[in-house]
Hints:
Layout: H1 2-44, H2 51-140, H3 144-171
Helix pairs in contact: 1-2, 2-3
Amino acid sequence: MRRLSVELSGSQSEINMLILESQKYDSMLQFLVSEREMILRAVMDGEEIDPLYQVSDLQAEEAKRKKLEDKVSIFQKQWQHAMAQTLADIEKTADDTELKEYRARLAILGAELNEKNDMIAVIEKEKNAFEELSLRAMSMGMSISDQSQEIDRLNDRYRQALTSKLDLYPEL
């Protein structure tokens, strides 16, 4: 994440430099356009300007303008590519982070489910032991009511454990 942050910072610095250069070229272009307009106005006003100088000057300025536009176009393409790459990196990192969080949550829920299953197994063993004891007690003539209360208590614990387990399934 830090590496991505550093890359994003570097990309942002490059973008800022490209924006500043683009603004510089825009300013230069505006200056050249205003110079061309002044020369054209001078010609229109009848001032004496050497026509050869004017044509060569305009051609040179037009060539400079074309070069500047080409550079701006290249910078814009580089900037768009850098932005697309940065966005792709951000999306990949976000997807990886979500996947890790999802796996961690599944591991926690799986551990809870195993714990509940273990609790149910222990309670079931106790229940079976008490049922066996109850059967032996009946054969010995012991009181049924004492044993049934113990079985009811175990059944309640068994139901609670099952309910807890069923409550865990929707989370998975």
